[in-house]
Amino acid sequence: MIIRAENITKTHRLGEHTVNALKGVSCEVPHGDFLFIVGPSGSGKSSLLYVMGALDEPTSGDIYIGEQRMAALTKKQRDEYRRLQVGFVFQSFNLLRNLNAIDNVLVPFFPQGVSPQLRKDATTLLERMGLGDRLLHRPNQLSGGEQQRVALVRAILKRPAVILADEPTGELDSQSGAEVFRILRELSSEIGSTVVVVTHDTRYIEAGDRILKMQDGQIIGEQTA
Predict the structure, then answer these.
(1) Of 198, 199, 170, 205, nearest in space to 51 by CA
(2) Are 84 and 158 in contact (CB under 8 A)?
């Protein structure tokens, strides 16, 4: 699925002050790309990611998902886009403390009901990630790397067209971070997802990855590693 941003701006009000998080950003993410958005804190990386995932709305400009203009979608259609087509991975993991690993993976499916096959698929993915002996463990019983792998399974289980990751290794040591990226690349390739990663850490960029460099709310460079 192609994601295209056209002249996106995003303005926040902080008390009496106005913060211009995005200043006329335009870019395109082709289907199947593995794209890194890099830049210092406050450069607009996460703001662009959230707009792409319909977690936030731009102040002006347009986001296109395929040929569909996001602004033309109803709230229900945007909710369905997030729920069905986008897998989110966050730095903070966002796991529920009172649920074990399997149920944390299945949380997005609870409103529609969880079939035995879906539970089996979740278990298989967790086992594939080396968490076969952690299936019934709650987040406080898991390491940071294990929690992030649970969050990654949650994002990938629905086989999303797009995976959006915001600093997914920010809380991890280098070994755990490398493992998370290895698994992300492997699984996203299998299901044909487009992947966009926001990060300040360039250690996990590999040959062939695309890189967008941001600063002060603007794209200042684009290249292929």
Answers:
(1) 198
(2) yes
* pTM of the complete model: 0.90
pLDDT above 80 (res 1) = no
Fold of 3-224: Rossmann fold (3.40.50)
* Neighbouring C-alpha atoms within 13 Å toward the C-beta of 205: 20
103-131: average pLDDT: 92
pLDDT tens-place string over residues 50-59: 999 999 999 9
Distance CA 179, CA 40 (A): 24
Place of tokens 């707009």: 51
- Residue position matching structure tokens 């035995």: 116
Three-state SS at 200: coil
Give me the half-sphere count of Cα atoms (radius 13 Å) on the Cβ side of residue 62. Answer: 12
Tell me which residue of 37, 51, 42, 39 sits closest to 9, measured CA to CA. 51
